Amino acid sequence: MHIDLHTHSTASDGTDTPAELVRNAAAAGLDVVALTDHDTVRGHAEAITALPEGLTLVTGAELSCRIDGVGLHMLAYLFDPDEPELARERELVRDDRVPRAQTMVRKLQALGVPIEWEQVARIAGDGSVGRPHIATALVDLGVVQTVSDAFTPEWLANGGRAYAEKHELDPFDAIRLVKAAGGVTVFAHPLAVERGEVVPEASIARFAAAGLDGIEVDHMDHDEPTRARLRGLAKELGLLATGSSDYHGSRKTVRLGEYTTDPEIYGEITRRATGAFPVPGAGGPRPA
């Protein structure tokens, strides 16, 4: 089985619609794909309707969190999307995305970048506006060459010159809320140091003690020594070790299925979840 547990659609900051994403996942040879848009489940219904036969969808979200001034992302899988407390927190995060993005645009303008809010809003479309949309605008303006180049201290990285904070969950609250909604939590790209400051391993141990289920090990932002280090940490803490593409369509160079999760780990995730279940595809033909 080929299993990719971290992807994004136009419901947040990807470039594939949810329907395109599941069709592309099937064409890439995946058997299982998780749709984990930032702080939203808006893309799930469209993805389920378009889900090709032979492809299974894991519903999820990537929750924005912060601890001790450091931002991090928590992948949440197979939770009940209607659980009111978790739904309310997701809404608070989403509602803060527009004023936060507008603040970053103003900071960029103060730095001499000829960026306009209308340009960013047009790029975001109906998605939850975020830094990748601003980064895309910087690419279009010729300020940086790639979206990844915008995520540096010079521009949009955590604590960078144009960075602005938003409402984010305490990770311990995120773990608690997802568990209460019947879901499973995996700490996304925990040692992606190129993105900015990361939490210390001692914090990961505290997350594990609070009920964290796993950590994302195989990821484009982790080099081989980092993956080995995280795999050892997962074993030490009794955490599941996942692998995922963090696919954003054309916004990143990574391909669907470039990094995958072991089927036994996937089976354990589905065994632990009680809020929702993987959806087997029957909405359309699987690409040849």
List its traits.
288 residues, alpha/beta, eight-stranded mixed sheet, 38% helix
Structure description:
The chain has helices at 18-27, 44-50, 84-95, 97-110, 117-124, 131-140, 147-150, 171-180, 201-209, 224-237, 263-272, and strands spanning 3-7, 32-35, 56-67, 70-77, 184-187, 214-218, 240-243, 279-280. The protein is of the alpha/beta class and 288 residues long. Strands 1, 2, 3, 4, 5, 6, 7 and 8 form an 8-stranded mixed beta sheet that branches.
Give the biggest sheet. 8 strands, mixed
* Secondary-structure content class: alpha/beta
Number of helices: 11
Order of helices and strands: EHEHEEHHHHHHEHEHEHE
Please compute the radius of gyration using only Cα atoms. 18 Å
Distance between the termini: 17 Å
* Beta-strand share of residues: 15-25%
Instruction: Count every beta strand, where a strand is a DSSP E run of 2 or more residues.
Output: 8
Low-confidence stretches: none
Mean pLDDT: 95
Give a short synopsis of this structure:
Helices cover 38% and strands 15% of the residues.
Topology diagram in text:
Layout lengths: L2 E5 L10 H10 L4 E4 L8 H7 L5 E12 L2 E8 L6 H12 L1 H14 L6 H8 L6 H10 L6 H4 L20 H10 L3 E4 L13 H9 L4 E5 L5 H14 L2 E4 L19 H10 L6 E2 L8
Parallel strand pairs: 1-2, 2-3, 5-6, 6-7
Antiparallel strand pairs: 3-4, 3-8, 4-5
